[in-house]
Amino acid sequence: MLKTRIIPTLLLKNVGIVKGIKFNSWRRVDTILPAIKVYNMREVDELIVVDITATSEARELDYESVAEFSEECFVPLTVGGGIKNLTDIRKVLLSGADKVCINSAAFDYPELITEAAEKFGSQCIVGSIDFGEAAPGDYICYSHSGKVKIDKDPIEWALTLERLGAGELLVTSVDRDGTMTGYDLTMLRRIADAVKIPVIASGGAGNYEHMLEAIKEGHASAVAAASIFHFTEQTPLEAKKFLGANGIPVRKFRVR
């Protein structure tokens, strides 16, 4: 059985780590290198780093910075933001990332997912879905870090990304992001049950119980989180211990 992964998410804006609520009201919380060093010590399974303004500012990622922080990262690293073509993906991977997260570009050019999977392997390609409720029960997708509404059903888009060749999906609730009130279990479960590739739950974690719910009720393969680790004393290691104690298979950790 695959082990459930705990994945902190680091959002970059102007070279600092920021965190917002519902993809808005961003505030700076840390700098990238010290945060990565801390997470190395806390035995996280993976890290996700996303430049949240690269796409809206129509610029490339800072590949030198990616190379710098990937050198300090001792766990699998997913990097996203501003990815628009195969050249960008190649540069990110050559800079030290293990996977590339693609969101906005997939709406404009869906074939990029297929081309990237064929060129670099589907295990390197993470399809990112940001979703929210346009009306009660009526879900849509978002691009450009929540700034642009896309009239696509998240479940259908998940199936499309899988068909195009994505190796896994990062599924984020814009409505729950930063609220620490729990994941959107309804949409999470619908997406996870619809596809055969791993689904990473994101948006809303406020405690370890929320993570357990995402796995047991939402059928997620992994849980990503940010605010819980930035603003509380809760840690990825303690989350892993909690999940393990509740029957969830997790990767080994040192007993402390």
TrEMBL record:
Its EC number is 4.3.2.10. Pathway: Amino-acid biosynthesis; L-histidine biosynthesis; L-histidine from 5-phospho-alpha-D-ribose 1-diphosphate: step 5/9. Keywords: Amino-acid biosynthesis, Histidine biosynthesis, Lyase. One of its GO terms (molecular function) is lyase activity. GO terms for biological process: L-histidine biosynthetic process. InterPro entries: Aldolase_TIM (IPR013785), His_biosynth (IPR006062), HisF (IPR004651), IGPS_HisA/HisF (IPR050064), RibuloseP-bd_barrel (IPR011060). It catalyses: 5-[(5-phospho-1-deoxy-D-ribulos-1-ylimino)methylamino]-1-(5-phospho-beta-D-ribosyl)imidazole-4-carboxamide + L-glutamine = D-erythro-1-(imidazol-4-yl)glycerol 3-phosphate + 5-amino-1-(5-phospho-beta-D-ribosyl)imidazole-4-carboxamide + L-glutamate + H(+). It comes from the Bacteria. IGPS catalyzes the conversion of PRFAR and glutamine to IGP, AICAR and glutamate. The HisF subunit catalyzes the cyclization activity that produces IGP and AICAR from PRFAR using the ammonia provided by the HisH subunit. Heterodimer of HisH and HisF. Belongs to the HisA/HisF family. This is imidazole glycerol-phosphate synthase.
